[in-house]
Amino acid sequence: xxTSYCCFLRFTRIxxxxxGSHLARLATAIxxxxxxxxxxxxxxxxxxxxxxTGFVRVYRYPQCSMENEAWGINVHTDSSVLSVLNQxxxxxxxxxxxxxxxxxxxxxxxxIFNLGDMMQAISDDKYKSVKHRVKLNKEKDRFSICxxxxxxxxxxxxxxxxxxxxxxDFQAQxxxxxxxxxxxxxxxxxxAAERELDFNGDxxxxxxxxxxxxxxxxxxxxxxxEMANGGGxxxxxxxxxxxxxx
Length: 246
Ligand SMILES: O=C(O)CCC(=O)C(=O)O
Ligand SMILES: [Fe+2]
Description:
Layout: H1 2-37, H2 42-47, E1 50-61, E2 71-76, E3 82-87, E4 93-97, E5 100-103, E6 112-115, H3 117-122, E7 132-135, E8 142-150, E9 156-157, E10 165-166, H4 167-180, E11 213-218, H5 224-228, E12 233-237, E13 240-244
Antiparallel strand pairs: 1-8, 1-11, 2-7, 3-6, 3-8, 4-5, 4-7, 9-10, 11-12, 12-13
Fe (ii) ion binds near residues 76, 78 and 132.
């Protein structure tokens, strides 16, 4: 029993690693085109996306009869540069555009690229980090596989709209806000113009909690040595979570 579980984990890991390496290539190519379009300094823009930071998550959103009251993931923005979503044919993903929530209709064999907070900063707000959420389906479970990629470790983001910061600064601030305020404030914390900010009002990003099950989380795809030190594969099942290092 344990052996077949371990085989399954190993096999899943190999598949997801390969999947992640293809997505890394795609995301880098798309980012390269966007950076060129934005006339970013090529040397600097190379540090704004790093395949070594990429990770893959697999979600299961349980079917829920109270469709209108239940959210798989509440409204949030991703902290990434780019997020690439691969969703099954069960609808649920919604994005906010001009104050309207739009359904992202599943199209077979299609990937969805979401722009994250880092992309917004890098582009001087020309591109917006998309607000999105996931609605639970009345009849079916929904599965998605998501790839997220970030700037290189220590790379300083220079933007006319924000003060210089690294992704680690951003992440630390998000963690602190979630702990103290209960939600992610996000990029507003790094706005260039110093002003008194009150984050207890409306419009803040949430930290994306909701009723979803993170069934597989493969961290830092390309750093096997870190996996051995506590990275690896985390399986979450209802009320339990397993942590297996392969
Ligand atoms: O499952 C999805 O389609 C979206 C997941 C998502 O928004 C996230 O993990 O940040
Ligand atoms: Fe997201």
